[in-house]
């Protein structure tokens, strides 16, 4: 069940303006942080995408950036199950799909496992840097 995750975000326009019709994969992405917010409640996941846009913004080209970092936010959380966040580096595949009106996320890598159900998913930030 491969879902175009960008079709599930509240406002896909910022991502589409950078990636066009390409949908960057959420497979084997580097996860930097998971932050829980009481507002929503919300879980934000900061990660590096593996695909760099074919036509990046001019300022990214000038600065020779090669890595895009986004923060995915899952708000109006209905359930979260997480275990095994014990390492300092995580490469994991995020599986995102919609079922019964909810956004579901499953991620598993080594000892780490994350499952959540939320009403909404959005991209809070998009930035780039030289890795």
Description:
This protein is mainly beta. The chain has one domain. It is 9% helix and 53% strand. The chain contains two helices and seven strands. Strands 4-1-2-3-7-6-5 form a seven-stranded antiparallel beta sheet, with no helix packed on it.
* Helicity level: under 10%
Tell me the fraction of residues in β-strands, as a range.
over 45%
Query: What is the straight-line distance between the termini?
Result: 32 Å
Unreliable stretches, pLDDT < 50, 5 or more residues? none
Largest sheet, spatial ordering of strands: 4-1-2-3-7-6-5
Number of helices: 2
**What is the makeup of the main sheet?**
7 strands, antiparallel
Q: C-alpha Rg, in Å? A: 15 Å
Count of extended strands: 7
What average pLDDT do the residues reach?
A: 94
What is the overall shape? globular
Class by alpha and beta content: mainly beta
Number of domains: 1
**SSE order, one letter for each helix or strand:** HEEHEEEEE
Explain the layout of strands and helices.
Blueprint: H1 13-19, E1 29-37, E2 42-49, H2 58-62, E3 67-83, E4 90-92, E5 94-99, E6 102-109, E7 112-129
Antiparallel strand pairs: 1-2, 1-4, 2-3, 3-7, 5-6, 6-7
Throw out a few tags for this protein.
single chain; 131 residues; mainly beta; 7-stranded antiparallel sheet; 53% strand
Short structural summary:
This protein has about 130 residues and is mainly β. The protein has helices at about 15-20, 60, and strands at about 30-35, 40-50, 65-85, 90, 95-100, 100-110, 110-130.
């Amino acid at each position: 069940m491969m879902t175009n995750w960008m079709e599930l975000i509240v406002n896909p326009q910022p991502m589409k303006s950078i990636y066009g019709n390409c949908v960057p994969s959420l497979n084997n992405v580097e996860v930097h942080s998971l932050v829980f917010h009481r507002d929503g409640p919300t879980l934000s996941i900061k990660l590096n995408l593996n695909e760099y846009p074919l036509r990046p913004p001019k300022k990214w080209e000038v600065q020779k950036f090669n890595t895009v970092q986004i923060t995915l936010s899952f708000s109006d959380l209905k359930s979260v199950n997480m275990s095994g966040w014990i390492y300092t580096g995580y490469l994991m595949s995020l599986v995102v799909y919609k079922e019964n009106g909810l956004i579901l996320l499953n991620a598993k890598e080594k000892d780490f496992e994350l499952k959540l159900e939320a009403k909404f998913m959005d991209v809070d930030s998009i930035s780039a840097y030289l890795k």
